[in-house]
Amino acid sequence: MNLYKLHTSPFNHTNLSSLIQLLTSEDGLLLTQDAVYVLRNPGILQELSSVNAELYILKEDMLARGLVNNSAAKPIDYSQMVELCLRFDNVISW
After folding, report:
1. Higher-confidence residue: 17 or 8?
2. I need a surface site. Which of 31, 37, 60, 70 has the fewest CB within 10 A?
3. Contact 57, 34 (CB under 8 A)
4. At what angle do helices 15-22 and 42-51 cross, to 10 degrees?
5. H helices within the chain, ranges in order?
6. CA 33 distance to own-chain centroid
7. 24: alpha, beta or left, given left = phi > 0 and alpha = psi -120 to 50?
8. Number of domains into which the chain is organized
9. What is the pLDDT of residue 80?
10. The model's pTM
11. Which domain holds residue 50?
12. Measured between alpha carbons, how far is 39 from 82 in angstroms, rounded to an integer?
């Protein structure tokens, strides 16, 4: 079980498309910093939901960018992020 932590914008890098190919239903994906802009792309959100990996978004980063979460991504705060990192076997930053 891996937790992938993505912090780069999905519009500037190909990291997300590469990452989606690695995700399994036992993994989690945490969107932080500019990666929260994925909320503006319904196509990417649909692709992520088809993988069935757990999807999380750092609430503070989402709010700082004026975004609203209308997706299946679970908003979490910093203390929940620490708990989440401890729950998975590996945390891999992208």
Report:
1. 8
2. 70
3. no
4. 20
5. 15-22, 42-51, 59-64, 78-87
6. 10
7. beta
8. 1
9. 97
10. 0.89
11. 2-93
12. 22
- Give the single-character DSSP code of 28: E
pLDDT value of position 14: 72
8's tokens: 């780069």
- The size of the chain, in residues, is 94
Beta pairing partners, 28? 3, 54
Q: Contact 58/81 with Cβ under 8 angstroms? A: yes
CATH number of the domain that 9 lies in? Answer: 3.40.1260.10
Residues 6+ apart with CB under 8 A from 19: 4, 6, 29, 94
- Identity of the residue numbered 44: I
Find all residues with CB under 8 Å of 52, minimum gap 6, and list them.
Answer: 25
Model pLDDT for residues 11-29, shown as the tens digit of each residue: 776 777 788 888 999 999 9
Kind of pairing, strands 90-93 and 2-6?
Answer: parallel
Assess contact for 37 and 68: CB atoms under 8 A. Answer: no
Q: Which residues contact 12 (CB under 8 A, 6 or more apart)?
A: 34
